């Protein structure tokens, strides 16, 4: 058989085997290259992520002594409600929502495989609607925090939780609908509910405190609430909200370290400046926050901030939708001094404000 015929026969064999081939010029030698592995589909990626992270997702049970219809409260705490949480370290710390643990006297945690363990409350924070409980023993998995600042509308996300307390480790998939959403009617909205992730991965009662994952298997949000009904408007679909992981991680770290969260305090009530607000009050700026009230004796009052002022920047960083005032302040601690750029009428001035510690209420 000639060299050319041998080459043609080899090419035929290669073609039927699904391998690519490159022949050297004027040579019967053949160089084989392995076929490139197919890129996983989004569905395959999601399934792999779920398999990886599901063991880190738990059901958190709130137990309380509730009054009996025909007698005194039960001698032992009984399950009064449940939510979802996720393991954040090998020491057994579990992040969930404040409203999941609120009022609880004892707690327990149910893992994905059905194992139930007693849990203790490490700390909770109503303002952020976050809490940490702890269990002892070996952890089946740990869910890593991701960067919520990197989220963009349209990005796929996965929610895992225990809707209705019965359907443990239910997975729903959706996309990020928007970031930086304000939700003024939510618990604690005066502070951290001004920077929520809006998504459409279905969550229901019992999903509260559960993780919102990206397709890298990282927690990018903590599911906290959804809107399913508005009076006089009927049912609502696909409006769910999560606390950004960047906020959740900071709060969790403080709760684990101290059992409570210390918030810096300015002592002002504000409204974000919009085009409509600027036109209505004839403001000289189109950004920042309009001060509507200043608490007596507060750091803001002592620094000379007045109702009607507009706080346009702190330490040279503009206060806007990307940098909400509350989120920006959280980078500081009580006792720190910040320079506030204040627009008062047609003039702008800088005032030094020494931050206090927010009162417990």
Commentary on this structure:
The protein is of the alpha+beta class and 361 residues long. It folds into four domains: 3-33, no CATH class; 47-134, Beta Barrel (Thrombin, subunit H), CATH 2.40.10; 148-258, Trypsin-like serine proteases (Thrombin, subunit H), CATH 2.40.10.10; 264-357, Pdz3 Domain (Roll). It is built from seven helices and 24 strands. A hairpin with a 2-residue loop joins strand 22 and strand 23 (347-354). The longest helix is centred in the first third of the chain and has 15 residues, at 3-17. The protein is globular.
What's the count of strands? 24
Q: What structural class do the secondary elements suggest?
A: alpha+beta
**Count of structural domains:** 4
Highest CATH level, the class of the largest domain: Mainly Beta
Structural topology:
Blueprint: H1 3-17, E1 20-23, E2 30-33, H2 42-53, E3 57-64, E4 67-68, E5 71-73, E6 78-87, E7 93-96, H3 98-101, E8 106-110, E9 116-125, E10 130-134, E11 156-161, E12 170-181, E13 196-199, E14 211-213, E15 219-230, E16 234-244, H4 245-258, E17 264-265, E18 268-272, H5 275-280, E19 289-294, H6 299-303, E20 310-314, E21 317-318, H7 325-329, E22 337-344, E23 347-354, E24 356-357
Antiparallel strand pairs: 1-2, 3-6, 3-8, 4-5, 6-7, 7-10, 8-9, 9-10, 11-12, 11-14, 12-13, 13-16, 14-15, 15-16, 17-24, 18-19, 19-20, 20-21, 20-22, 22-23
């Amino acid at each position: 058989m000639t060299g050319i015929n041998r080459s043609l026969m080899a090419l035929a064999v290669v073609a039927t085997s699904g391998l690519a081939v490159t022949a050297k010029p004027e040579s019967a030698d053949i160089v084989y290259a392995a076929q490139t592995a197919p890129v996983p589909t989004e569905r395959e990626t999601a399934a792999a992520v779920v398999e990886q992270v599901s063991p880190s997702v738990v059901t958190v049970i709130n137990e309380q002594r509730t009054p009996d219809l025909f007698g005194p409260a039960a001698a032992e705490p009984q399950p009064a409600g449940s939510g979802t949480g996720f393991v954040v370290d090998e020491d057994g710390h579990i992040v969930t929502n404040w409203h999941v643990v609120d009022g609880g006297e004892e707690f327990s945690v149910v893992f994905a495989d059905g194992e139930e363990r007693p849990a203790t409350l490490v700390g909770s924070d109503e303002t952020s609607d976050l809490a940490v409980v702890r269990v002892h023993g070996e952890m089946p998995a740990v869910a890593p925090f991701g960067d919520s600042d990197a989220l963009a509308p349209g990005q796929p996300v996965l929610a895992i939780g225990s809707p209705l307390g019965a359907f443990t480790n239910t997975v729903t998939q959706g996309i990020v609908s928007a970031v930086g959403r304000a939700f003024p009617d939510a618990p604690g909205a005066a502070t951290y509910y001004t920077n929520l992730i809006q998504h459409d991965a279905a969550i229901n009662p019992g999903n509260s405190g559960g993780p919102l994952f990206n397709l890298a298997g990282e927690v990018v949000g903590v599911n906290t609430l959804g809107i399913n009904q508005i009076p006089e408007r009927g049912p609502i679909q696909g409006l769910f909200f999560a606390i950004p992981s960047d906020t959740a991680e900071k709060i969790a770290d403080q709760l684990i370290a101290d059992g409570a969260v210390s918030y810096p305090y300015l002592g002002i009530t504000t409204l974000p400046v919009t085009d409509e607000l600027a036109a209505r009050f004839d403001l000289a700026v189109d950004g920042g926050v309009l001060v509507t009230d200043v608490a007596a004796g507060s750091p803001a009052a002592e620094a000379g901030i007045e109702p009607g002022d507009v706080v346009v920047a702190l330490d040279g960083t503009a206060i806007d939708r990307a940098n909400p005032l509350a989120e920006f302040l959280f980078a500081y601690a009580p006792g720190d001094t910040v320079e506030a750029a204040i627009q008062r009428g047609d003039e702008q001035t800088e005032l030094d404000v020494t931050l206090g510690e927010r009162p417990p209420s």
